[in-house]
Amino acid sequence: MTEHIDEKDARLIALLRADARAPVAELARQLGLARTTVQARIDRLLAKGVIAGFTVRTGDAVAAPIRATVLVAIAPRTGPAVVARLRALPNVEAVVTVSGRADLIVDLSARTTRDLDTTLDDIAEAKGVQSSESFIHLSTKIDRRG
């Protein structure tokens, strides 16, 4: 069953995405609710899994400077083995299954072009990978991933 999210919950989640460290009193002021009501909403959203947790988004000073997205086509019935291989590559940040001409989208980060090149080679050479196409990120225009 899907948890019902009302307008106040949606606004609360948006505020927490912008600043997960915002004091509950400040969130309450922005939402026009009592502090205890906001805390109860946060607790309920956590308990129901609507909010999975809180994290730190690192800035450019810490992040690997080179990012890329790779479209990967794999042979039938090789998905688990390919994903296991990708999991072992330290520059792989995320792998998503998709429909279309590719089977997987792989997000990478690397400190150097040499590291990126090595990772791209490792992906292309993985057993079960039929083809890969990489896209080096140049700049981020919109990022709402919170």
How would you sum up this structure, described in words?
The chain is α+β, with helices and mostly antiparallel strands and 146 residues long. Helices cover 38% and strands 21% of the residues. The chain has 5 helices and 4 strands; from the N terminus they run αααβαββαβ. It has a 4-stranded antiparallel β-sheet with strand order 2-3-1-4, with helices on one face.
Helix and strand arrangement:
Elements: H1 7-18, H2 24-31, H3 35-47, E1 66-74, H4 79-87, E2 92-97, E3 104-110, H5 113-125, E4 129-136
Individual helix count: 5
Helix content: 25-40%
Structural class call reads alpha+beta
Residue runs with pLDDT of under 50 for 5 or more positions? none
Global mean pLDDT: 91
Biggest sheet features = 4 strands, antiparallel
Q: Please state how the strands of the largest beta sheet are arranged side by side.
A: 2-3-1-4
Elements, N to C (H/E): HHHEHEEHE
3D shape:
elongated
What is the radius of gyration computed over CA atoms, rounded to a whole number of angstroms? 20 Å
Number of separate strands: 4
Q: Beta fraction of the residues?
A: 15-25%
Keywords:
146 residues, alpha+beta, four-stranded antiparallel β-sheet, 4 strands
Please provide a brief summary of the model.
By secondary structure, the chain is of the alpha+beta class. Helix content is 38%, strand content 21%.
